[in-house]
Amino acid sequence: MPHRHFTRLRRALVAFLALALTALALAGCGRPGSPPVKGPKGSELPQYQVAKDFSLPDSPTWVRAKKRGHLIIGVKEDQPYLGERDPASGLYSGFDIEIARMASAALGFPPDTIEFKTIASANRETALQNGQIDLYVGTYTINDKRKKLVGFAGPYYMAGQSLLVRADETDIKGPGDLAGRRVCSAAGSTPYQRMQTEYPKAVLVAYDTYSVCVDNLLTYQVDAVTTDDAILLGYAAKVPDELKVVGKPFSQEPYGIGVPHGDDALRLALDDALAADEANGNWQKAYDATLGLSGVPAPKPPPIDRYPAS
Ligand code: GLU
Question: Based on the domain organization, do 208 and 71 belong to the same domain?
Fold first, then answer.
């Protein structure tokens, strides 16, 4: 009897391990970025020149990555045209993924060696602080509160908070119309915090990701989703008959590349890289082939903020 019990236990353990391994494989860590299945052709994406004999000895993050042989970059996997992971191939694509590839090339690591890790909004600072990732590129707003915990290169794009509603919604036209309505956003995000402090009459619902919010919107569990316009336009573009973005953006969300706090050598090297890729046309080309597909022509990138070390 005890033996049989043990066997059953072992079988359960094996089954559990197999399941866990499948889940890990599905999580697809370590796959390089690539164009989405229905998105741009590879030929339309920029080819980033890998910096030769590049060295950044003053950056502990770079030195660690050099020893490892590649960069580990935190991204999103459910934000159309920004950071999207194809579940079949495990490949990542989108504007943020292109910024990550650009950064990798500039630091001397071929972009196709990047190990991407999906990290939710609420976990970005911790992931950079505990060395789980070297960089983070995923609709990451630069602000003073976060600058106490991490560093930011950039900004490389300026977004603004907006609202996504069902196509047949007529009452919600701006954040002032949300009193008593259920509004969904991602935990740990700036749009969530802004709703909490500036629109307390809205009934705020939080999930880890915006795609879960969008599912809740489509199934009438919530009345609106709020986050950056760049993210919402992507969801709307995927199902234009069912969803629409309403009103004007009501915040400024400058996107930066997150780096570990205090690694100023890395931060400033990435500022230089962004400036170079904006000047040589790569930034525009990357935008046109990714985020541009959600319908907004390429804006002028915001000025880079090389802020002093803190
Ligand atoms: N840009 C905002 C933020 O960093 C919202 C998007 C996101 O959650 O990634 O919080």
Answer: no
Interacting residues of 44 by C-beta distance below 8 A, sequence separation 6+: 35, 285, 288, 289
CA angle 97, 102, 106 (to 5 degrees): 145
80: helix, coil or strand?
coil
What is the residue range of 260's domain? 47-159+252-294
Q: What is the pLDDT of residues 220-231, one digit of tens each?
A: 999 999 999 999
When pLDDT is cut at 50, 70 and 90, the band that residue 295 belongs to is confident
Cα–Cα distance for residue pair 186/161, rounded to 1 Å: 13
Single out the residue of 248, 295, 291 nearest to residue 79, CA to CA: 291
3 lies in a domain? no
Name the residue of 81, 147, 190 to mutate for ligand 1: max ligand atoms within 8 A of Cβ. Answer: 190
Q: Are 286 and 102 in contact (CB under 8 A)?
A: yes
Name all residues whose Cβ lies below 6 A of ligand 1: 121, 138-141, 186, 189-191, 227-228, 253
User: In whole angstroms, what is the distance from residue 113 CA to residue 38 CA?
Assistant: 23
Classify residue 221 by its DSSP letter.
Answer: S
Asked if residue 120 lies in contact with residue 188, where contact means CB atoms within 8 angstroms, the answer is yes
Residue in this structure with the two tokens 């709020």, named with its chain if needed: 226
Number of H helices, E strands in the chain: 10, 13
What mean pLDDT do residues 138-144 have?
98
46-100 pLDDT, tens per residue? 999 999 999 999 999 999 999 999 999 999 999 999 999 999 999 999 999 999 9
CATH code for the domain in which residue 210 is found? 3.40.190.10
Q: How far apart are CA 194 and CA 141, in angstroms?
A: 13
